[in-house]
């Protein structure tokens, strides 16, 4: 800790991170051990976080992340969208296809930003808010590949995923994971009406994903 930082705030944030990393919650004793502080300090931290609905405790006394965290999380998407738009616009114009940024939302992939090309006669209508399973479509499969999961997992560094007809008949997609951004799992991709996506487009998508990652760091 430095003179410019708050020890209490630091501990409170550490509590939230510890609770976010577990599905079954943690007891005061467990938190005390993990934080290296006494139980009285943990009680005070939990009481403060409960007042802001960031933590809740069940009947057994186990602490879990509260619904207040969701309200904070809703404000993340507009910030992420704003940071990603320049790279998405350039990608859409270069490729002549609809570009999108997709983030993980539970077990689904959620499109949070979409940019359509300005010069094409037609393109795929892909809307912000569109959801689909992580294991279907280029965007979700790229996220799984970035985790090192699924049939497309990347064992030798990040790459891109090409798909056809998995979400919409006649449409093909390309996507690459956004890597190295703490707290965010996502991918950048394009969708186009074609039988396949040229490999050069996959490389361009991968470059755009790296640009978005840089903008978010």
TrEMBL record:
<dbReference type="InterPro" id="IPR014757">
    <property type="entry name" value="Tscrpt_reg_IclR_C"/>
</dbReference>
<keyword id="KW-0238">DNA-binding</keyword>
<dbReference type="Pfam" id="PF09339">
    <property type="entry name" value="HTH_IclR"/>
</dbReference>
<protein>
    <submittedName>
        <fullName>Helix-turn-helix domain-containing protein</fullName>
    </submittedName>
</protein>
<dbReference type="InterPro" id="IPR036388">
    <property type="entry name" value="WH-like_DNA-bd_sf"/>
</dbReference>
<feature type="domain" description="HTH iclR-type">
    <location>
        <begin position="6"/>
        <end position="67"/>
    </location>
</feature>
<keyword id="KW-0805">Transcription regulation</keyword>
<dbReference type="InterPro" id="IPR011991">
    <property type="entry name" value="ArsR-like_HTH"/>
</dbReference>
<feature type="domain" description="IclR-ED">
    <location>
        <begin position="68"/>
        <end position="217"/>
    </location>
</feature>
<dbReference type="InterPro" id="IPR005471">
    <property type="entry name" value="Tscrpt_reg_IclR_N"/>
</dbReference>
<dbReference type="Pfam" id="PF01614">
    <property type="entry name" value="IclR_C"/>
</dbReference>
<dbReference type="InterPro" id="IPR050707">
    <property type="entry name" value="HTH_MetabolicPath_Reg"/>
</dbReference>
<dbReference type="InterPro" id="IPR036390">
    <property type="entry name" value="WH_DNA-bd_sf"/>
</dbReference>
<dbReference type="InterPro" id="IPR029016">
    <property type="entry name" value="GAF-like_dom_sf"/>
</dbReference>
<keyword id="KW-0804">Transcription</keyword>
């Amino acid at each position: 800790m430095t003179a410019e930082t708050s020890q209490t705030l630091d501990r409170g944030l550490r509590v939230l991170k510890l609770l976010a990393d577990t599905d079954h919650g943690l007891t005061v004793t467990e938190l005390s051990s993990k934080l290296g502080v006494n139980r009285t300090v943990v009680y005070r931290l939990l009481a403060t976080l409960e007042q802001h609905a960031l933590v809740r405790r069940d009947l057994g006394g186990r602490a879990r992340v509260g619904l207040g965290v969701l309200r904070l999380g809703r404000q993340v998407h507009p910030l992420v969208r704003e940071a990603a738009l320049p790279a998405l616009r350039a990608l859409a114009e270069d490729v002549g296809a609809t570009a999108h940024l997709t983030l993980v939302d539970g077990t689904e992939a959620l499109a949070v930003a979409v940019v359509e090309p300005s010069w094409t006669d037609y393109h795929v209508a892909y809307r912000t808010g569109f959801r689909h399973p992580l294991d279907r479509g280029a965007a979700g499969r790229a996220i799984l590949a970035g985790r090192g999961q699924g049939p497309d997992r990347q064992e030798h560094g990040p790459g891109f995923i090409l798909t056809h007809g998995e979400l919409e008949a006649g449409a093909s997609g390309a996507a690459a994971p956004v890597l190295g951004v703490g707290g965010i799992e996502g991918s950048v991709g394009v969708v186009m009406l074609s039988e396949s996506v040229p490999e050069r487009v996959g490389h361009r998508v991968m470059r755009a994903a790296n640009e978005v990652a840089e903008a978010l760091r």
